[in-house]
Design brief:
Elements: H1 3-13, H2 30-42, H3 50-56, H4 61-72, H5 76-94, H6 99-105, H7 111-122, H8 126-136
Helix pairs in contact: 3-4, 5-8, 6-7
Length: about 140
């Protein structure tokens, strides 16, 4: 990860800090996890302000990031990427939308970023994944 990308991730999603030994791990209530996931899913194609998500859960941004991770096993950013890729797979399998449109609809900045992220996570490019999925039907 280059310095500019790391700065962007930290400024938008927060740095991951490990709790000190003996520190109690913060967790979100079930309603907070559901509310956060719904808000992030509903605005998947838009830039996400974790401060706004945290406020909707009535906690601070830093607490939210740590507690979301402790509650779900994923950072908010990891959860969002996983959700974007899941939505992209749905669109790839059920529509004939061009890859660039799917990328934007799922919140990726462009098709290239979508292709790299999708291939890194699934082992296939989106176009190849679509062809394989359609043959399986």
């Amino acid at each position: 990860m280059n310095a500019a990308h790391e700065e962007f991730v930290v400024s938008h999603f927060g740095a991951r800090q490990r709790p000190s030994k003996g520190a109690k791990t913060a967790r979100l209530a079930v309603w907070q996890v559901r509310k956060a996931m719904k808000l992030m899913a509903d605005h998947m194609a838009d830039p996400i302000d974790l401060g706004e998500v945290a406020r909707s859960c009535r906690v601070s941004r830093g607490y939210f990031i740590d507690a979301f991770n402790a509650s779900t096993g994923l950072t908010p950013h990891q959860w969002l990427i996983r959700s974007r890729l899941h939505r992209a797979q749905e669109l790839l399998g059920s529509t004939d939308l061009p890859l660039a449109e799917i990328a934007l609809a799922c919140g990726f900045c462009d098709q290239s970023h979508f292709n790299r992220t999708f291939a890194r996570r699934t082992g296939e490019t989106p176009g190849r994944w679509r062809r394989i999925a359609r043959r399986a039907i």
